[in-house]
Amino acid sequence: MELQAGVVAVQGNVSEHAEAVKQAAKQNGHTITVETIRTSGIIPECDLLLIPGGESTTISRLIHREGLAEEIKQHVADGKPVLATCAGLIVLAADPNDERVDSLGLVDVSVERNAFGRQKDSFEAALDIDGLDEPFHAVFIRAPVVANVGDGIDVLAQVNDTPVAVQDGPVIATSFHPELTDDSRIHNLAFFGTDK
Fold first, then answer.
1. CA angle at 40 for the pair 49 and 47, rounded to the nearest 5°
2. Would you give the DSSP letter of residue 121?
3. Residue 143 to residue 195: CA distance in whole angstroms
4. Which residues in the chain show pLDDT less than 70?
5. Residues with catalytic annotation?
6. Quick one: pLDDT at residue 6?
7. C-alpha dihedral over 84, 19, 135, 55, to 10 degrees?
8. What separation in angstroms does the CA of 38 have from each of 43, 64, 80, 166?
């Protein structure tokens, strides 16, 4: 089956996400085209959408300026899957706890930015994640955490009893950067519902 994926490319690890979703699609027997998205008009054609990390205030400003915000909202309303990582989680959160972030309100959580500290406090951890048979090697870089979850939110993983991966309908959002490993299982889980 031919799929089209879009990576919102206003900031963040765009090429790494593109490679990870290609690997996940191949493992599931799909051919896939990956588009980098900086302007409106592409998201409506996408089956899958990725929102990378970066700086949440910058991402928020650019997706609104370029007309991507409403297209992302419609993508989710149509039940199409999204994977949002690190700053992507903040931008999609109902409450980003930062008035500079014009959030999309697509994930019913509040977040705390840089919850583990600054760049020097970045770390890696083996996480048990609901839906995966084996622990996932997660890379945390100036990572947010989920401070509060709304009704209907599935918490997929935690660090010290604090949620770092959640699912709200078709959206999976993580505090960490799954694209910075060779393990595409988070992309598999988000887009194909498998642990390959």
1. 25
2. G
3. 24
4. 12, 115, 117-121, 195-196
5. 86, 177, 179
6. 97
7. -30
8. 10, 11, 19, 26
Tell me the C-alpha to C-alpha distance, in Å, between residue 81 and each of 65, 75, 159, 168, 193.
23, 8, 25, 10, 10
21, exposed or middle or buried, with CB in 10 Å at 0-12, 13-18, 19+? buried
In a 13 Å sphere around the CA of 7, the CA atoms on its Cβ side amount to 23
pLDDT of residue 11: 72
Element at 180 (helix H, strand E):
none
Angle, alpha carbons 116-118-124 (nearest 5°): 55
Contacts of 180 (CB under 8 A, 6+ apart): 13, 16, 139
Give the pair of three-digit tokens for residue 60: 């928020």
CATH homologous superfamily, domain 2-192: Class I glutamine amidotransferase (GATase) domain (3.40.50.880)
Global pTM reads 0.94
CB atoms within 10 A of CB 12: 24
Position 178 scores a pLDDT of 95
Would you list the domain boundaries of the chain?
A: 2-192
